[in-house]
Design goal:
By secondary structure, the protein is α+β, with helices and mostly antiparallel strands. The chain has helices at 3-6, 10-17, 24-33, 55-61, 71-78, 82-88, 90-97, 143-160, 165-187, 191-196, 211-230, 233-241, 274-283, 286-292, 340-343, 351-362, 400-421, 424-431, 436-464; strands at 106-109, 118-122, 128-132, 139-142, 199-200, 242-243, 250-251, 258-259, 296-303, 314-322, 325-333, 371-374, 380-385, 391-392. Helix content is 46%, strand content 13%.
Length: 475
Amino acid sequence: MNKAENRIHRSEIGERNAATYLTADERAANGRSLRDVVPRTSQAGWTPTQDRGDPVKLLEASNAGRILQLVPIRFGRMSASPFAFYRGAAAIMAADLATTATSGILVQACGDAHLMNFGGFATPERNIIFDINDLDETLPAPFEWDLKRLAASIVIAGDHLALPKSDAARVVTDAVREYRERMHNYGWMRALDVWYDRIDLQKYEDRSGDPEIVAAARKRLAERIETERSKSVPDHLYPKFVSEEGERPRIKDEPPLIFHPSEELAPGLSSGYEEAIASYRESLAEHTRVLFDRFHFFDMAIKVVGVGSVGTMCGVGLFMAADDDPLFLQVKEARASVLEQFAGKSVYPNHGQRVIIGQRMMQSASDVFLGWTRGKNGRDFYVRQLRDMKMSAVIEDWDAGMLRQYGRMCAHALARAHARSGDAAMIAGYMGSGQTFDDAICEFATEYSSQNRTDYRAFIAAIREGRIEAKIEAD
């Protein structure tokens, strides 16, 4: 299907899923019939179009509306490696994916499903689950777009770790197979069982993996979970971020990464962001408002986070219920999804709402403080707890076995997220039970990793020639 045919609305997902009743076998048959229109082999390979945009210009265009003095930090972080560049180049790949073949089967897509946007976090019941943990770009879109971005990130990570290309190819093929086989399982599961399914890190098992690697991964996870549990808010975050000098607790300035904004940069400062906080409160469930009302606003500061988000209005708010009872809320600007130009505009009036609704649809459990608001400057924001036992992968010392294990976990999480909003049986029917689809996505991922390296070199050349500025942070 071409770019125009990819344009869809969120409401269409529900409408299609709620259409005439069909059994799972019938929906799978409909998925198989799509192969006549879009053969699975058409998913293979990557060839840039003749009118492909200049990647550096696309990145510069994505800086519109960002805090200009922070843009060099964004580019500095992206310059670290082709893998770091890929993390910040979602807009480039979105434009590329829109030119590729798709089955037309829609899901609530992550929009930026690379390896580092998966990880562990705490549920409201304080269990640690593994899931997609960054959904800033979420929007209804073809399921292949997320899978191809994940697959390409695995190959690029393999290059980053200096793995043999044959090892990287096996790892990515195995991840795609995991996605396909999990989707087959979800396609014939009961709807409520799919919705309730979650990946519990403390109980996670992968019987198809190497027992030694699985055991090593479980040991690492246990150590990380114990570390994160020990980082309780009062004992860890509060002294790290807050100074008690003066009459009121205040977030410590650590420019350029943490700083207090001016009224011009963040309108509402003089009133304590009263209107924005009230609007955020209204987005919460009524029972959560009772809890939130125990806390009182004390301070807000800009906090630079991530790679792709650098330069957007991201901050941390300090709320207190008592002297030793703080709540830290992360406030992130929500801009239009990078998929919007190619998949259609969001049906929600606030991009923060788009992110939160997408998050609730894709994640098996969500933070109780998830909500959204709009600032006086017209910027949209979403809100969540800061670092609620959040764990991200640190891949620097991984071998092929660890990358394989983690890639399979990400593929499992992506399949589960897609099955919640999309037609799992239809997706399974299209992919089939053989290796044809796996090989096609692997070929795409391998060739797109070369495109990413070419774009990275053009990006580094632009920095060296002084066309764009990059600031390298001290370790």
